[in-house]
Specification:
The protein is built from five helices and ten strands; from the N terminus they run H-E-E-H-E-E-E-E-E-E-H-E-E-H-H. The strands form three sheets. Strands 4, 5, 6, 9 and 10 form a five-stranded antiparallel sheet that branches. It has a three-stranded antiparallel sheet with strand order 2-1-3, with helices on one face. Strands 7-8 form a two-stranded antiparallel ribbon. It is α+β, with helices and mostly antiparallel strands. It is elongated, with a radius of gyration of 19 Å.
Length: 188
């Protein structure tokens, strides 16, 4: 979170370029901006800070975004629901979702699965959710965010696995146990 120019420029000097600057508050007409170098960054950040704080993050060229949806029973039982590629977008709208994500190594999938299971078990997650990862061009996953509930594209995962996640989430909310075992959730 950047509230003053010195903090933003200091972080960029440490993290490097390219970087992305995003407004903290979603204000019409304010979108993420790619920062390619120090002189552009100073002018752009200074102008943006007049309207409120911004977030800065490192931009990784050629990276992909992959989600690992999951479901938990609130008592430490958690199942992962394959993975799905959510990289393709037009502006902020996802225009293509593919499951399972193509071209991932077994190691990358295993790391994402382990992180997802570890986090959801630790917090005793009840219901559905998804962890989104940034996959670098060399195949390393980095956790981007945790999302509660179902994404608009949950139907891709339902079709892939032959499950009804809305029904399962409602049953979990009513206190019922998980309906499946991990071995039953095989992509078709």
């Amino acid at each position: 979170l950047v509230k003053e120019i010195a903090g933003g420029l200091g972080w960029l000097a440490w993290a490097g370029y390219p970087a992305v600057m995003k407004p903290v508050e979603a204000v019409r007409g304010r979108r993420a901006q790619l920062l390619e170098g120090a002189s552009q960054a100073e002018v752009t950040i200074r102008a943006a800070l007049e309207r409120g704080p911004v977030m800065l993050e490192r931009h990784v060229r050629g990276a992909r975004e992959v989600e690992v949806p999951f479901i938990g029973d609130g008592q430490g039982g958690v199942l992962t629901l394959a993975d799905r590629e959510v990289t393709a977008r037009l502006g902020s709208t996802r225009i293509w979702v593919e499951a399972p994500a193509a071209g991932l190594t077994d190691r990358c999938r295993g790391q994402m699965r382990d992180i997802t299971l570890g986090l959801a078990k630790r917090v005793r997650w009840r219901g559905t959710g998804a962890l989104r990862f940034l996959i670098t061009p060399d195949g390393r996953p980095y956790l981007l965010k945790v999302r509660a509930g179902l994404e608009p594209w949950h139907c891709v995962t339902e079709r892939l696995l032959g499950v009804d996640l809305v029904d399962a989430g409602l049953r979990l909310a009513a206190g019922e146990p998980l309906r499946w075992r991990q071995s039953q959730l095989v992509p078709k």
